[in-house]
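Researcher: Here's my situation. A collaborator sent me these components and asked whether they could plausibly form a single complex. I don't have experimental data yet, so a predicted model of the whole assembly would be a useful starting point for our discussion.
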Amino acid sequence: MNPDDTNTHRTRIRGMSIRGMTIVELLLALALLSGLMSASVAWTTATARTHAVEGGWASWEAGAARALTVLDDALLVEDRRLRGNGRERWRVDASNDSILIRTRELVAARDSTPVVSGLLQFTVLRGVLHAVYLDDDGHELLTRPLLGETQSLEVSMTELDRRAYEITVTLVGTNGASAERSWRMPKEAVR
Amino acid sequence: MNAPYDTPRRGIALLLVLVTLVLSVTAVTGLARIAVGARLGQEAARDQHLADQLLVAADSPINDWLRRHAGRLVLPPDTISPRFTVLDERVVVEGTDCRLVITAFDQCGMASMTARSAATEAFLPPEVLATLDRLDETSRTHPGLDLFASGVTAPIYPSVQSSRLAIGEVAATHNPHRPGARVAININTAPLPLISTVYAARGLGGIEAIIEARTAGRIASPGAIKVPRGGADNNEDHDLPLPVSMSTAWAFRIDCYAGGVRRSWWSIYSDTGSNWERVQRLAITE
């Protein structure tokens, strides 16, 4: 064999080894890549699903917190002229599944004229928490949906001392998540 | 001589590292996002709760101020807004920087919205008059600045930062302080043009004495200066304000700052004869 030929053969082999992989290595790489791709797709899908679920819960919880803030504000806003005298000086009327608050809110009536609503009721209707604005006679002026996917609204009342109750409102979502807030109310303000 | 064969292995290793890195970064970013969101939500809820606690706490300094100071307040005669700073205090509550700012506005130092008279109507902004005309009965039976939530371009609630006159410092919702009572004008806090108009309509003299007393920081008394010029008060116009030196209704703007949360409220306090009672509280949303 001509020494020059041997050198040429080596160079070719070296050139091949530098430019590409052997068939076994290529197959191995492809198998590894497929495995990794499958794993990453599975991971991404699982993560996205978890995010969606977590995000949904977080979104419901954020919505529930906002709904409780509406309730909070309704308790802070007040107008004595919208309240009667004597026994009618209550601000909160709590039942097991709804809460009625004497407050003040300007709502647009059917003919778009602003009307002052003095009563606000929070209640769950067909899985949606609603804020129902009522006039002095208890007639419905406006109903505003506040939070979907709500299973129930629970109101509990605990006697704190001789002067006050603690009212706790709990919102329970259809996914089992819940949000609650408590308020201390003087006894004369509770019917 | 393994070097040429190491290159594809390094390539695979790099590929593995890259995929791992992408997966790890995605996972960590997602987790961090959820954690930061939850943390921010918790902090916002806590700050809001603190701001609401500040609002409840504001009742004490307001009542104290009403009992101690409200009866002997005088403003310079060139004042256009009957406002007084009650409190501006910073405190740290549970590690959170909080600030409570309370500003008082004399309801008897403004033209009444509910008991309008020809003499004082000129002091109500045209937008206010238009809204009152539109709402008519509601504005009389359920007075409140929230009625102006739409249809006006002027600021509704007076602000500490803004120099623009707001409706809430020129037009009173609770003067008279209770239904059936007389409309009053505090000659120590009301703008002088308003007092002059009322005095002229009632046929009274003594504006100079009011200017002199207010310039000197003394309380002017309507009893001493109420000199009938064209006859005594004949009650022809019941809605014409009665000059007084002490107010029976005050409005307060309460700004509660807690961390990054600010909640502002508009509260009206009325004199019951023996005490002061909060008769209205509205959320300032503008």
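Model: Some features of this prediction you could bring to your collaborator: Residues 224-233 of chain B have pLDDT under 50 and may be disordered. The CA atoms of residues 19 and 25 of chain B lie 10 Å apart.
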